[in-house]
Amino acid sequence: xxxxxxxxxxxxxxxxxxxxxxxxxxxxxxxxxxxxxxxxxxxxxxxxxxxxxxxxxxxxxxxxxxxxxxxxxxxxxxxxxxxxxxxxxxxxxxxxxxxxxxxxxxxxxxxxxxxxxxxxxxxxxxxxxxxxxxxxxxxxxxxxxxxxxxxxxxxxxxxxxxxxxxxxxxxxxxxxxxxxxxxxxxxxxxxxxxxxxxxxxxxxxxxxxxxxx
Amino acid sequence: xxxxxxxxxxxxxxxxxxxxxxxxxxxxxxxxxxxxxxxxxxxxxxxxxxxxxxxxxxxxxxxxxxxxxxxxxxxxxxxxxxxxxxxxxxxxxxxxxxxxxxxxxxxxxxxxxxxxxxxxxxxxxxxxxxxxxxxxxxxxxxxxxxxxxxxxxxxxxxxxxx
Lengths: 213, 162
Description:
The complex is a heterodimer of chains A (213) and B (162).
Chain A: H1 2-22, E1 46-55, E2 58-67, E3 79-86, E4 95-107, E5 118-125, E6 142-149, E7 159-165, E8 178-192
Antiparallel strand pairs in A: 1-2, 1-8, 2-3, 3-4, 4-5, 5-6, 6-7, 7-8
Chain B: H1 4-21, E1 35-43, E2 49-50, E3 53-66, E4 71-83, E5 89-103, E6 109-118, E7 126-136, E8 139-144, E9 147-153, E10 156-161
Antiparallel strand pairs in B: 1-3, 1-10, 2-3, 3-4, 4-5, 5-6, 6-7, 7-8, 8-9
């Protein structure tokens, strides 16, 4: 009897511990869209890309994502991230890691067989927590990425350009004294109405020009 | 004794109810709307080899958006540099048209799609290869068809899974 009584308490403790461990907090819900400024277009679409561009004799890698937030009701709000890594040891190196705040996007009226095509302006916030942009005086407060999706094969056809701007990331910036980028060397840009229904035949990229990164 | 048995039963029943009420958790992957953004470079450990090329380092650029149903849209690009068996500098380029993506329970992301391999030795690129990539915050591992590219560690740049 004594043994049974001493065992009786642990199951309750175990039960409470298990209940507590199972009651894992649910993930936070995305906040509603925030669109304080009107941008040139309210078109819904997404932009993705990954690859390299040649900057003279140097190569830089980029990765980007931009999409409309949940419950988007116009105004240019966007979410995503811009990464840009210039592969050289430069003073005030051109390394960019910023969250996306705004986007204007135009979908082509003649999409590729894979259903993509168009162009987009994507704004990233250099002042966000953890963001990184090249050093400058006055400080760069935003970056503006302009991308074109001209072909499924990407390399040699698509376009990636990043501008470093002293305007805040609350509008499409206009004061951008420094620019990097050009025609996509390797990789691809995709602009499409939504991320759903992905598929299509994979294009074959042309041979990349030989350069040192 | 009479009070102890019902207490245990109730406790077990509560546990069972709560356990059954939890969302299903696949063994290794969940389809969720995530974004994977990355660009950077890395240095291979000594001995890394791909198709006879001794790999030294590489760069990567990735932009992928995944959906609840496991589909995804986006692009992956890797460039690997090394030395050929006869000591010549060789650049290998891997591009991936990503159509599937899942976030794994360990925080890594698995991407799938179709890839193109340019060995950089003068031969034409080979397209239409099944591509699977596993991306963690510390590196990128790509399999093209049956060929596994050694994991490219992230030494510089960023890998973000949001």
